[in-house]
């Protein structure tokens, strides 16, 4: 009864940080439970409920930090367990959290896999537009940025400022600039290197750098299993980049102009990866303040400013679509870019930036398969092995996230229940 009175006399607001567990108490009218009536637990919509971590957030927290045991011990030392009668209420909450978490996780990963498919289609559409209709990559980027300006309707419909909430507009602007610079560098590199090499280098640099920057800027760590899986995928991308036998065994002298053009193209692809990693980490820090629609509008209007500057620097000519199939390709390209952006950006609200980028490595084998359907050219052996490694690494990553072991799930639930029940003072 005494523990029930404590639950009724104060409302606990728990916040969990990778290194600390804090609590806030707000005193209100004491509540005395009636016989036969269960003690009230905070429900969705209650004041202060949003500060309590979800089960999925807690599980991710346990996986991404190395001090899980210390956290549990600190929670145990802070105070005794709540009354046994509250176990049923907490159990019901955990079951509800678990079902919602599994459903949300599946939706997130389905969106990521759909984004990878859209990215792979985007690579092939860009290449076909350039080879068959002489449409420059930067021109295509400018068209998609202009069309995507329609995303301003989303924040306006919700009554939000399309340039972001007050106090976060500078960070949102920097995010948009980083994202647009990444696209400009990536599309500019297509003028100097093949689309396959440019895309693979971009994705490899983005994944590796996003893991590093997330740790340095956000203190978000990858679990050991996640790190090993991502490293295997990166090795696969490295195999895809190996030159073919006929390219490596050539004895003809290399033209210095061709060499430096290629080096510049590779550098642009790597720089695009750096900018994209900064953009992913930047939005990860804004996930609770900026919606996906606002982010898309920010990327679009910054792209409308930076793409013409890139066109002027590279002196890429303007070439308008002159036929219905050409316009169809352009519209399909815009649709794929929007779908890819939505899937990636939504996933950033729940997953580590490196996991989001690693899942998009599927765009490389998808683009290879689609390209074989359009232009049947036999890939090299390292390219085939590398693409298989990418597929296996992403498949294993998805399996680990959606099919957790029972022991791990039970242990996380027990620790989560202890945090909720502990009278932290």
UniProtKB/TrEMBL annotation:
The chain crosses the membrane at residues 107-126, 138-156, 168-190, 202-218, 225-244, 264-283, 295-314, 326-349, 384-403. InterPro entries: EamA_dom (IPR000620), EmrE-like (IPR037185). Residues 112-241 form the EamA domain. One of its GO terms (cellular component) is membrane. Pfam families: EamA. Keywords: Membrane, Transmembrane, Transmembrane helix. Residues 28-48, 66-88 are annotated as: Disordered. This is EamA domain-containing protein. It comes from Sphaeramia orbicularis. The gene is slc35g2a.
């Amino acid at each position: 009864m005494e523990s029930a009175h404590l639950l009724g006399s104060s409302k606990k607001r728990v916040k969990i940080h990778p290194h600390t567990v804090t609590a806030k108490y707000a005193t209100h009218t004491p509540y005395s439970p009636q016989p036969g009536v269960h003690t009230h637990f905070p429900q969705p919509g209650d004041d202060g409920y949003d500060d309590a971590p979800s089960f999925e957030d807690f599980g991710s927290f346990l996986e991404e930090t190395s001090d899980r045991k210390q956290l549990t011990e600190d929670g145990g030392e802070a105070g005794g367990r709540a009354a046994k009668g509250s176990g049923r209420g907490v159990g019901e909450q955990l079951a509800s959290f678990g079902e919602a978490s599994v459903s949300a996780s599946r939706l997130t990963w389905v969106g990521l896999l759909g984004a990878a498919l859209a990215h792979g289609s985007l690579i092939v559409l860009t290449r076909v537009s350039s080879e068959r209709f002489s449409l420059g990559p930067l021109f295509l980027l400018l068209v998609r940025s202009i069309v995507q300006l329609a995303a301003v309707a989303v924040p306006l419909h919700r009554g939000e400022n399309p340039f972001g909430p007050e106090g976060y507009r500078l960070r949102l602007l920097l995010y948009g600039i980083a994202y647009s610079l990444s696209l400009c560098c990536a599309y500019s590199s297509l003028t100097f290197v093949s689309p396959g090499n440019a895309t693979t280098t971009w994705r490899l640099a983005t994944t590796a750098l996003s893991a590093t920057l997330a740790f340095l800027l956000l203190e978000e760590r990858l679990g050991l299993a996640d790190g090993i899986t991502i490293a295997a995928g990166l090795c696969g991308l490295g195999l895809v980049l190996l030159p073919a036998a006929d390219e490596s065994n050539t004895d003809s002298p290399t033209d210095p102009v061709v060499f430096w053009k290629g080096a510049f193209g590779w550098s642009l692809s790597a720089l695009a990866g750096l900018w994209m990693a900064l953009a992913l980490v930047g939005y990860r820090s804004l996930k609770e303040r900026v919606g996906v629609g606002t982010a898309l509008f920010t990327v679009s209007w910054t792209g409308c400013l930076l793409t013409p500057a890139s066109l002027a620097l590279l002196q890429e000519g303007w070439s308008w679509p002159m036929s219905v199939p050409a316009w169809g390709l352009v519209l399909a390209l815009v649709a794929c870019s929007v779908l890819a952006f939505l899937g990636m950006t939504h996933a950033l609200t729940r997953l580590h930036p490196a996991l989001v980028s690693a899942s998009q490595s599927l765009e490389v084998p998808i683009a290879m398969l689609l390209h074989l359907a359009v232009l049947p050219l036999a890939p090299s052996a390292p390219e085939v092995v590398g693409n298989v490694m990418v597929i296996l690494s992403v498949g294993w990553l998805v399996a680990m996230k959606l099919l957790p072991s029972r022991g791990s799930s039970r242990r996380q639930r027990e620790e989560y229940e202890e945090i909720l029940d502990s009278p932290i003072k």
